[in-house]
Amino acid sequence: MSEHAKCGIFSFLVMGLKMSKHQAEGILITPPDTLRKKVGGKLGPVNAAAIARAEAAMESLSENFDAWICDEVDKLETARKAVLVDGLSSDAGQDLFNAAHDLKGLGLTYGYPFVSSMADSLCKIILEEDVRAKAPIELVSAHVDSIRAVVRGHIKTTNNPVGQALLKELSDRSATFVAKL
Prior knowledge:
By secondary structure, the chain is an all-alpha fold. The protein is 70% helix and 2% strand. It has a domain at 64-179: Four Helix Bundle (Hemerythrin (Met), subunit A).
């Protein structure tokens, strides 16, 4: 038995090169860093003027937020009316989910955090077709009515007791429904 075999280290050939005892213990392969070339290296300093312009643009748009969220709530209401006629298993059920999902993202952007949270709760009970088919229409309608009430009442802070009570009730009932599945 060779000396290397006694030590537990075997000499071997890799790509025709005989490796030393030190090299046989491990090889570190460093792949080329092509990503840095593709993205342009390190980011430059933050452009405070660009951020200020973006914030000013958002501020100028914010005067439209209330009208825009009302339009989104109208879409949700229209989808609910279609669901009442055609059922949650129809295309109307998917339209309702899409409208709720839009509000889930837009509520906070438009200054209505409860709308985002309530729409999220609604999305959880109508996301999947098989679950949507079993969802109680009363629970779905309660979500839509609560979202409409929050927008009509201009409830824009999370410390509003009415908004808190509505959200808690909707979340609790949705959790109970999902748990029974």
